[in-house]
Amino acid sequence: MTQQVANQSDELRKGMRVAKNTVVLFLRMFVLMLVNLYAVRVLIRSLGVSDYGVFQAVAGVVTTLTCLNSVLSASTQRFYNYAIGKGAIQDVGRIFSISVNINVVFSIVILLLFETVGIWFLNTQMMIPETRMLAANHLFQFSIFSFLCTILQIPFMAALMAHEDMGWYALISTVECLARLLVAMTIGLVSIDHLAYYGGGLMVVSVVIMLLYVVISKRRYQELLYVKVKDFSLYKKLLSFSGWTLFGSLASVGMFQGNNILLNIFFGAITNAAYGIAFQINNAFNSLCNSIVLAFRPLMVQTVARGDHAYIKRLFMVSSKFIFYIMLLVIIPIYYGMPYILDLWLDKEVTPEMVLFSRLIMIYILIMSLHHPITIVMQAKGKVKVYHLVAESIMLLCLPLSYLLFRCGWPAWVSYLSMIIVTSIAHIARLFVIKHECSWFSFSCYFFNLLSGIGIKQDEREMFQRLIRKGKNEK
After folding, report:
1. Which is more confident, 396 or 369?
2. Res 454 pLDDT > 60
3. Which is more confidently placed, 81 or 320?
4. How far apart are CA 383 and CA 378, in angstroms?
5. Helices 414-437 and 371-381, interaxial angle, to 10°?
6. Helix (H/G/I), strand (E/B), else coil: 59
7. Which pLDDT does position 20 carry in this prediction?
């Protein structure tokens, strides 16, 4: 009886921690979404539609490898959480040191790649007005070093998330967002080229944010000490995990940045501007989705490490349902009100292409949001090879499909159609993989729970009820 009470108390404590982190991250998401959306309006007004399109195209060349940021962060956080879940705090320092080494090597490789192939591609393959080529090259250089800062901060940022210190993470990311807005608002106050100024300002912001992550995490977690690690098996595990996760992230890069480059080649910078608007909407909804995911991820990874199948099933079902309905409730009214929202948001003439791109991206967002709980479970189990090989191979078909359709004379919006098709097929493939790897997963239970509130299991209802009662008692 005492053990049962202790287990219930521990479960309640975990639930309250998830609830607290969810609230913090939702507040962060709300602030960041408003600021980012307003920043786009300021940026278009300051740069103009043409220069904004150039910015999207040039920055797209650099962000073709931004998947490294999310991949290395998720991989490092996974190993941090796994060590914490097993109670092996001493392993955190070794993981930190290996992560620093890997990120430094990646940064050098990326710098060499961009300074050779990247410059060639920018100056010979992209459709940029001749009068803006010098500014585009300056922007390209600033974007490279901004990206390198985000890579180098990963071991420190992942430590904050692994320890569920979402308050600090939310604060730093909010400061970053406000600083970027400040740079955009001051564009009209300078006499130098506005495109180059904006790129340089973003680079300065990236350096400051990297230093904030380093200082705060080093002060809060004593285990983040750099040591020489000769355990090459641990290097192999982290690199193998990161490698397959990177392969999975290439699908997203292929769809967004690859399509962005294709649109520039086939349709020009004006279409890139419309694409950039839809991409900002995608980022806003990603912030909403990630606010839920980040709150659940540490606890899900630690639960898998302990082998608690009953609790991970509940977390999986709750997070899947929560993500789906939150996204659906937000997307439906915005979808139908898109022309009015864009007109109010941008304060400029809204083209039919902008409205169509923005509506189609929301269908993709809803489908794509469902993969997060599956991905967390598979990454926590370390079963990433087959998972990414199967699902993301399907996702990677989007880029060649868009290219072929463009060559056949189809309009620009068809790129979103290819994204929606391959994402739907890939999600079905993900479900088959998790079914094979997790005995507790059931197709009928998943779909019934996802599509019907009646399908919520008794233990899930009790989980919500305990959280509600706890909140009332604290009030």
Report:
1. 369
2. no
3. 320
4. 5
5. 40
6. helix
7. 58
Q: Is there a contact between 319 and 327 (Cβ–Cβ < 8 Å)?
A: no
Q: Tell me the C-alpha distance between 19 and 422, whole Å.
A: 33
Contact 378, 384 (CB under 8 A): yes
Residue 394: CB atoms within 10 Å:
19
**CB contact at 8 A, 185 and 43:** no
**Model pTM?**
0.62
331's tokens = 């997307």
Instruction: Choose between 289 and 29: higher pLDDT.
Output: 289
Please give the Cα distance from 43 to 48 (Å, whole number). Answer: 8
Written as six digits, the tokens of 290 are 């990630």
Give the span between the Cα atoms of 29 and 27, in whole angstroms.
5
Both tokens of residue 151?
């890579």
CA-closest candidate to residue 297, choices 81, 460, 123, 130:
81
Query: Can you tell me the distance from the alpha carbon of 257 to that of 303, in angstroms, rounded to the nearest whole number?
Result: 35
> Which amino acid is residue 162, in one-letter code?
A
In whole angstroms, give the CA distance from residue 458 to residue 460: 5
Q: What is the pLDDT of residues 345-383, one digit of tens each?
A: 776 667 788 888 888 888 988 888 888 888 888 877 777
Confidence at residue 5, expressed as pLDDT on a 0 to 100 scale: 43
Q: Is 268 left (phi over 0), alpha (psi -120 to 50) or beta?
A: left
User: How buried is residue 343: exposed, middle or buried, by Cβ count under 10 Å (0-12/13-18/19+)?
Assistant: middle
Kindly tell me if the per-residue pLDDT of 475 is higher than 70. no
| pLDDT-wise least confident of 229-238, 446-455, 457-466 | 457-466
Cα(198)–Cα(47) distance, integer angstroms: 9
Residue 418's domain spans which residues?
A: 2-474
Helices (H) and strands (E) in the chain, counts: 21, 0
Residue 45's SS3 state is helix
pLDDT above 60 (res 11): no
The whole-angstrom separation of Cα 305 and Cα 309 is 10
Residue 256 CB contacts under 8 Å (≥ 6 apart), including other chains: 279, 282
CA distance 191 to 209: 26
Task: Tell me if 83 sits within 8 A of 224, measured CB to CB.
Answer: no
**How many structural domains are present in the chain?**
1
Rg of the Cα atoms in the chain: 22
Residue 204: predicted pLDDT: 93
Max CA separation in the chain (angstroms): 77
CA 389/CA 248 separation, integer angstroms: 7
Q: Which two tokens stand for residue 111?
A: 């710098």
